[in-house]
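User: tokens in, sequence out, please.
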């Protein structure tokens, strides 16, 4: 893989798990700051379709969800990504019924280009699923 030219910054990519997305929907200042970076074109915020379902809370208004999701890219996933997630689980010695959504989120993170940071409430499993160049941060 080529290194970026001297002085050229790689784009920042923030990958959100369900707790990180929930924090954004609830108005957490740090998560809103990351969404603002995305709105200004200084970063990209990405998640998986499964994460949207997992993070859903009926107490939150549809308008609030729409506002947050207007700043988040939702990855398109298919059979190839499912296979890759299955392989990640197997390689890490994890089980699908416990870590399926984490494995899919790991696939989403691996597909990104740039400085990738995954924000999660479960850093232990994601650290097992992801290589060292992907930063995992506990929320």
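Assistant: Sequence out:
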């Amino acid at each position: 893989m080529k290194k970026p030219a001297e002085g050229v910054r790689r784009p920042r990519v923030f990958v959100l798990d369900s707790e990180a997305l929930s924090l954004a929907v609830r108005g957490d200042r740090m998560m809103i700051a990351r969404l603002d970076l995305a709105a200004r074109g200084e970063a990209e915020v990405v998640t998986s379709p499964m994460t949207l379902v997992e993070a859903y809370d009926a107490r939150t208004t549809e308008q609030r969800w729409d506002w947050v999701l207007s700043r988040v890219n939702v990855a398109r996933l298919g059979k190839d990504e499912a296979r890759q997630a299955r392989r990640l689980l197997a390689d890490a010695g994890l089980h699908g019924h416990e870590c399926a959504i984490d494995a899919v989120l790991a696939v989403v993170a691996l597909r990104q280009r740039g400085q990738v940071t995954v924000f999660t409430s479960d850093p232990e499993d994601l650290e097992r699923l992801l290589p060292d160049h992907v930063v995992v941060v506990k929320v």
